[in-house]
Design a protein that fits this description.
Layout (H helix, E strand, L loop, with lengths): L1 E6 L3 H16 L3 E2 L6 E6 L1 H10 L8 E6 L9 E2 L3 H9 L5 E13 L6 E5 L2 E6 L4 E7 L2 E14 L7 H4 L11 E9 L12 E4 L4 E5 L5 E5 L2 E5 L2 E16 L6 H9 L8
Parallel strand pairs: 1-2, 1-3, 3-4, 4-5
Antiparallel strand pairs: 6-7, 6-16, 8-10, 8-14, 9-10, 9-13, 10-11, 11-12, 13-16, 14-15
NADP nicotinamide-adenine-dinucleotide phosphate binds next to helix 2 and helix 4.
């Protein structure tokens, strides 16, 4: 098994990653950043997002594992004091995994030879940099509404606990194959009207955001941000590819949600 260990810059993560590498080497695992089968991140959800994008072209060959060194995360369910247990689990590995949906995003430009596609693990968000964003929202190529406001965001089920939640979106169980469309500060009055609530879009549907021409847009794909000129539309659908996690034990999703946002069940395990 070829294992990559990737840590964020926090001193604790660097220390935990060094300890983990040592234990993995003792157990005769091959440590490499080149074409790994397993990627272990040490840090937070942000560290896993980074690693996901580093290996985005090798997703079919990789299973991820997240060790958290701060608060419990959604992609990071191993704790820093469980390294021995993690190494033992890797030794007994029989390729068990759980996979979650990703978004396939196409940025469509006036010159369509410049079109680009991306995968997102959490979400894609588009905002107008200078003024109210105006966009027609089409679902399955059919006009649904004309949006005016700060922006629009489409998230995965695992992204539903990230930016989507701050926008008032629902928390979605990651086994649900769907995506969620959220508004960012929509203008709703007698003149302008959009739905005003999050929408859950089925896996065989796609969303197209037809943007006003001649504007500058900021496009966020997870933690990656770009400024886009000459953008005409953005198409978002569930991707064929999925992210795979090595699953050596079951983590109860709703307990994790409670732990992250409420905390009342802590100590009752
Ligand atoms: P960041 O500082 O790396 O992340 C912001 C926070 O979001 C961190 O606390 C991070 O957890 C947490 N997070 C990331 N993915 C999550 C998930 N799936 N479920 C629950 N929490 C999650 O910010 P960034 O680099 O700009 O962007 C990375 C992601 O952060 C974005 O994809 C976006 O979803 C989220 N974000 C949220 C807001 C907001 O809620 N207003 C604003 C900006 C970004 P860790 O501390 O464990 O890394």
């Amino acid at each position: 098994m070829r294992i990559a260990v990737i840590a964020n810059k926090a001193p604790k993560s660097i220390k935990v990653a060094a300890e983990l590498r040592e234990k993995l080497a003792e157990a005769s695992f091959e440590l490499t950043l080149d074409q790994p089968n397993v990627v272990i991140t040490v840090g937070g959800d942000g560290t896993l997002l980074n690693a996901f994008h580093s290996y985005v072209n090798e997703l079919d060959k990789i299973r991820f594992i997240g060790v958290h060194t701060g608060h419990l995360g959604f992609y990071t369910d191993w704790r820093d004091y469980e390294l021995d247990y993690l190494v033992e689990s890797l030794k007994k590995d029989n390729s068990q995994s759980v996979s979650y949906p990703l978004l396939n995003i196409t940025l469509i430009y006036e010159d369509d030879t410049k079109n680009k596609t991306f995968l997102a693990l959490n979400e894609v968000t588009v905002k107008n940099l200078n003024r109210t964003m105006v966009a027609e929202v089409l679902i399955k190529d059919e006009l649904f509404e004309k949006f005016r406001g700060d922006g629009l965001s489409v998230s995965t089920p695992t992204g539903s606990t990230a930016y989507s939640k701050s926008l008032g979106g629902a928390v979605i169980h990651p086994r649900v194959n769907a995506m969620q469309l959220n508004e960012v500060a929509s203008i709703n009055n007698r003149v302008y009207r959009s739905l005003g609530s999050p929408m859950i879009i089925a896996k065989d549907e796609w969303i197209t955001l037809e943007l006003d021409r001649g504007e500058s847009y900021q496009v966020h794909i997870d933690h990656l941000v770009t400024t886009e000129e000459n953008l005409v539309s953005i198409k978002v659908e569930l991707a064929e590819q999925r992210i795979q996690f090595a699953s050596y034990r079951h983590t109860h999703f709703w307990r994790r949600v409670n732990d992250a946002f409420i905390g009342e069940l802590r100590g009752q395990e």
